[in-house]
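Appendix B. Chain record.
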Amino acid sequence: MRAVSLFLSLALCCGASVQAQNPKPIHYEDLEVGTVIQGGIGLGIFTKPFPMPPGQWTVVGRNVSTIPLVNSRTRESSGSISKYDLTLKSGEPGGMLPAMVLSITGRLTNLDPGTKPCNPSTSKTQWTDTFSDRTPADIASSGAFVCASSVGVSNFKKVVADAATSSNAWVKSALSPLAPDAYTLPDNAVMVNISASRYRGYTFDVVFFVKQEGNLSDPVYAAHLQPWIHATGLSLLTSTDGSASSINLPVPFAGSVATGRPVAIDNRVQSTFTDVVPVADIRIRKTFELRSADGDNLKSSLLACIPQFGANFKLPDVPMQSVVHTTFKAAGSSKIFIAKNSMGLCLQSSSANFPIFAAEAFSGTVAPVGVSDEVVSDWNAEIARLVATKGVAQVAYQYPNQGAMSVKYWVDASNPIVIRYATEFKAQGAWVPQTFDAVFADTGLTAVQSINVNAKGEGKKDVPF
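Structure tokens predicted for this chain:
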């Protein structure tokens, strides 16, 4: 009897130990800031947990939002569903995976939350995994989607430290909770964004911040890290239907320690196109060099700009006179041909994958008053150079009284011919010249008029000429 009691005591002790080591995962809806997670996150009854990488993870940020839904059969609006965004910090400072941001949307019936486009990257310093090794039959039968995009983030530590004041809404919301521990983060990180969803399953959007130890343009580093990204994407895809899966930590890159010193990181965009203009060779014209795009001249002008279309290319059977403007782009070329009012423009891109505008493209956005046209053209040429180099230009028009009109110009990768801009007046002492890409000053400057802007001071120019 004594032996039986001893056995029961041992069993209870061991059972309690096992239970302590493998507690029931907390459901994602119940996670609060400060919760420590290990092993997984609960998704629901009869469903395996969402797989967390090894180690302890602390929830430092939580946000709940709603996303619109569309009926997958009727394509009509069908209400909305909650999406939970969780910012998680690793319990191992200095590790290979110091932080991640996880977004979870619950199971749906016949509703479709939509998927992101998964397009191949046009930069050597950005990776895209379309998981093309999945068979069409598998994709069709499972109704599943998975895509991974990766980009290097330079000065990651500073990006996190300054996240609270970022103009990027996602950075501000997702990364500012990490700011108190920014000093523990790596100087550079690979931001791996994996989206996975399944018809009538879960939708996951996960951003992993991996300690960057090599350049994404380096084939050796790509061969090292890309297999981990691919395996992690497949694990997330498995989890979308509630099945069990696991995620491993990325291993250190041997190339970063082979020489005994860190690899020099360069995350600048490096275009994969061969017809781009190197950044160092960019020359900004004052006006665009337009070509005739009327009648028979349209096709010849188009082929002169983008020969990849080929001589057998047929133009759309639409009278060009009835079209406000149209754009042409072909695979394998960075150039864009824009036809408008019987004239055509062959728009080139820089090796940073941004359009090279002429100075005149920025006329009609703001109008400096009291300054000669020649000076304004020089200012616009500098804006064009900045946009061609990094896709954005933050400039200040400084008044003689030391106040300024702040103007931010940028282009979207999805539609690079559209110039967007935002204006804001800065009183004397309310702005720091060193924070701007360029400061334009002239003793004759009396005003800067914003053109075609909304109540927020934002505007856009749909065609550069």
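Further analysis of this model is presented in Appendix C.
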